[in-house]
Every structure is written in structure tokens, then in C-alpha cells.
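task queued by scheduler; priority normal; single chain, no ligands, no partner chains; default sampling; output format set to C-alpha cells
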Amino acid sequence: MPTPILMEQVLPAGVLGPHETTLDIRAYLVPHPAGLTLVDTGMAPSGHALDQALADAGAAWTDVSQVVITHGHPDHTGALGHVRSAAPHAQVLVHPAEELEDTQPLLDGETVGGLTAFATPGHTPGHLCLVDEETGAVLVGDSLMVQDGRLVRAFSQFTVDAAQAERSLHRLPSLRGARMLFSHGPEIDQPWDELDVLLDHPPAG
């Protein structure tokens, strides 16, 4: 089962609202037969939380064979430089529409490191959800998030194409029944039922 790496980032007033905000950020370690896949890197360039998560798992950077990036926003790529230094042997994969340098392409339906890519563009042009082939768990990236215990859409101010993001959300029920794992927020009970309600109430505008 994917293991969450919990991180918090304090954002100054004006980024997500009029007040200083603490953002819940989660990367994931996903085991597979040849090692570990790291999904996203968090925001802090130091990568200390990633180092600690590997140590807590009894693993090392030499065990990380792939790094998969759900999308190119800095809260998902901030420690990528540290990761590249610590695990120079690891492939770094992302959808090419994200235009991240020195990466390998990962396209809809392709499987790498125990994860199958599920294209969900809209939040960014190449946003990917990822399905853990062993457990069926869906890592939804920023397609959805949890705030105050409720399932919500991604932050609108950081979504490049809201209409496309909404169409992508309507793809997700084809994966129904699996656990949802979020980049922002903890797991919730009955996420698919909450998604049904969300899709029945399109965003204003």
C-alpha cells in the first residue's frame, strides 16, 4: 500500500486567502517488486521529510527506482533537485505537457514502478492520477483535495482550465471502489459517494 509522507508548508497571506495558511502536502512511497517509487516531492527544497520517510521505512535512496510527478506545481516538485542528487539512478517521469526538464514521458495508460498513469488534465495540462496496481488505490494528485474533512475540487486560482478539469473528474468514477489518496488532505470515508455529490453540483461559472 502507498505510504504517505506528510509535510506542512506555511503560505503567506494572499496566496490562498487573506491570512497566512498552513498547507497539508503529501508525497507517497509506493513499493513494487524492484524497489520503491516516489510520487511527488513536496515543496521544501531540503527534502528532509523524504529522507526521514525512507529511514522510517527501513529503506534508502538506492531503493528508489522511479520518481513520478503528478504535475509540475512547486508543492509537488520543490525537492526534486534534492531527489536527483540523492537518487541519481532513479528515473523521473511526468506527462510531457508539464514541460519539466530532464524527465521521461509518462502517458495515459502506461505503467511504471507499480503505477498506471490516468490522465486528468485541467488543473495543469499534463496532470496525472496514478493507480497502484497491487492495491487499486488511486493517488488523485490535485484533481481533488480534502478540506475540513470534505472532498472538494482543486484550488481554482491554480487550475489552468476549469472546464477540462471538470471533464477529467468525470473520468474518475471508472475507478470506483478503490481507496483515494490525496496530495492535500487525509483519506476520508466514502470518497466515491462524495465525488458523486460533487459532480452533481458543477462549480459556478
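post-processing summary
- The chain has five helices and 13 strands.
- The longest strand covers residues 21-32.
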